[in-house]
Amino acid sequence: MSEPLKVVVAGAAGRMGKALIAAIAANDDLQLFGALEAKGKPCIGESVNGVSITDDPLPVLAHAQVLIDFTRPESTVELAALSAQARIVHVIGTTGLSTDDNAKIRAAARHAVIVKSGNMSLGVNLLAALVKQAARALPDFDVEIVEMHHRMKVDSPSGTALLLGEAAAEGRDINLGEKSQRARDGITGPRNSGDIGFASLRGGTVVGEHKVILAGPHERIELGHIAEDRSIFANGALAAARWGHGKKPGLYSMADVLGLNEKA
Asked: For residues 91 and 237, is the Cβ–Cβ distance under 8 A?
């Protein structure tokens, strides 16, 4: 039997960090090798599953094989550079990344295996593939994306909503940035043909709900996904970690992990 993959969890004390650590403990082929948190956090020095939480990533990443990262954009960009130096797998579930952040991550992927997705759920990534097909097959239907998350979520639209929007845009061979409609208020006039609309709802403890609406003349198609527990994101991230181990450096997505980018 091969040795377990040595996994480091960034944001170890957060909601996703705790879910990841629990999922790692439930899998014999994975080992929690390091737990990272931001400087100044009161949890620094505490032990979790036999590993001390630290704010110094260098010593643990130097001997790890995988880093799983659901943190903040500024932290993710720094960790991507360190993952490139260490030549390890970096699984990124962080959302709210800017164009500049993504450019830096692409640069890091020249030396690291980076699997990045706005949502690590296997179901959501299958949904994205369906949305891409539907948008391509129904080019004249209006596309609207509605998402709802817990009241503490700080970015909007969600990374998942943007993932689904990108899927629709790819299906129609258009640039999402040029066709994205993210706010409507007051007298806005008729809907622009070809726009991809977004609506963001926040409240309570909702883990994540997404609906893609394709509205045509006298008919409407709705494709959706409801997340009931954060463990689905953790399990997807672990699948990405296993898949990425041994791959050539590059920037990959969950569609690669699921084999959805393979041509028949």
From this structure: yes
CA atoms within 13 A on the CB side of 29: 8
Q: What is the pTM of this model?
A: 0.82
The per-residue pLDDT for 25 is: 97
What percent of the chain clears pLDDT 90, i.e. is strictly above it?
92
pLDDT tens for residues 15-60?
A: 999 999 999 999 999 999 999 999 999 999 999 999 999 999 999 9
Q: Which residues contact 106 (CB under 8 A, 6 or more apart)?
A: 251
The DSSP bridge partners found for residue 144 are 197, 213
Tokens of 250: 């590059």
Structure tokens at 224: 């959706």
Strand ranges (DSSP E) for 27-136? 30-36, 47-48, 51-54, 66-69, 89-92, 113-116
Q: What is the pLDDT of residue 248?
A: 97
- The catalytic residue positions are 149, 153
